[in-house]
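Hello again, I could really use a second opinion on something today. I've been staring at a protein lately and its backbone has me curious. You're getting the sequence in one-letter code plus the fold written as tokens. I'd be grateful if you could look everything over and explain what you see. No rush at all, and the record is pasted right below:
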Amino acid sequence: MSETNPGTIVSADKADQERRGLMLVLSSPSGAGKSTIARLLLEQEDNLELSISVTTRPRRSSEVHGVHYNFLEPKQFEKMKEHDELLEWAEVHGNYYATPRGPVEEAIQNGRDILFDIDIQGTFQLYEKMREDVVSVFILPPSIAEMKSRLHRRAEDTEDVILKRLETAVGEMKHWSEYDYVVVNDDLERALGNVRAILRAERLKQKRSPAIGPLIDGMVQDLEDALKGGA
């Protein structure tokens, strides 16, 4: 009896292991709740890590260096920019924010997904450099009244800063249509579930799984060989 050829076996694990990582971008006007959604995503999703931005903004009392941001002096920031070490950068309310290039590119190549909690300026710069790797989600509050209430409850900014954030929100919200997805955060659990569904679907896109094509080609060849053998 001749030995049966097992043929090509498509392994979901193998496809996932060889998958190219993605950049999940969350943006929103201040007070929409994206930071809370980002935190819960990191707690509940495997293979998802936060891109730690650098900033020249003074550290808030509730923030930890290296966890929330890497806090830099303006001279340090300028040096990184001059050496092309930043994937994106933006000036917000008189302070600079940026994403270091090296850690992100390494993670994506190794199949790890990176979460970005950044504004629209940073998002559009990522579009320019790595659009195929970016999945962008714009988080909206259920109403302006609720957004203002959340900013006041946060109790981290002065009234002048809150006013500036609200003024900035006008321009930000006009760019909603340039994002891949829009999620309204009227219910945190539902909004989180929607973002997780987006992440799962994007991970399955064929363009992120280079191993799938060769595996399917092998299966087709096995089928053709089997049909020839049975003829």
Q: What stands out?
A: The chain has one domain: 12-215. The two ends are 19 Å apart (CA to CA). The domain at 12-215 is CATH 3.40.50.300 (Rossmann fold). The chain has a mean pLDDT of 86.
